[in-house]
Amino acid sequence: MKNDRRHELQENDLVDSVGSMMDRVRPHVRTFLGIGVLGLLLIASGILISSRTRTTREAAWESFLAALSQGTPEAFEEVLVRYPDSPAAGWSRVVLGDIALTEGTNSAFSNREKSQERLRTAVELYSQVVAERPQGMLAERAVFGLAKSRESLGEIDEAIRGYQAVSTDFPSGALASLSARRADSLKGDDAKNWYEWFAAQEVAPPVTSPLDETAPAAIETEVIPSEPAISEEGSEKPLSQKAPDSDETPPADGAIDKPTEQTPSPDAK
Fold this sequence. Notes:
- 64% of the residues lie in helices and 0% in strands.
- It is an all-alpha fold.
- The protein has a domain at 59-204: Tetratricopeptide repeat domain (Serine Threonine Protein Phosphatase 5, Tetratricopeptide repeat, Alpha Horseshoe).
- Helix 4 (87-106) packs parallel to helix 6 (136-152).
């Protein structure tokens, strides 16, 4: 009986403890419920944002692949406008930099002004990608393109540092070996002397004559004969002398050398 009484007292103490705890918690129940609801909202928002981000990223890559199939600068510029903060935008800038670099190097020997403009554009595009601190292949391609653009502009020291950065920061990358060799090549005096010589040359676009554009088929050119025509007296015949027409019947043999005999008339006797 004493055990039953002791058990009853323990249950009463437990009930009193729970009741006391509920009394302390009751004023904060709404706060706890609000925190729980807020947590659920944050979780739901995170899931929604993650889903939208994934959808946007997929759409950006689809747009980039479509631009690759088109191969036009306008298509890659559209990716930059629609998805400016996506990884696809970084690759679009690299491709636009490659286009500008190719155009700049191709026109270096024919139009210095155009070449410099396109090469500066390439430097700007690659620099924008590098400033975003990308990782992996994108970073390697951007740093290499920037170094190549610097080299084409004759900025040898900056180009060497860029090539060295590629070979050092991406030792297992596809461009590491090429960059190391290029950096070593530019350190020599021959390379620096060549770029200094080329920078001093005056390169301008060729001047096109209007005659070159109209294919002058109607313009006759004077043909110089291989051997001069010699007259019987040993003097050269003038170039304006008309040659006999091919339709004219040539004289019979001896018609020129033999004089025509005249038959005497009967009155002459």
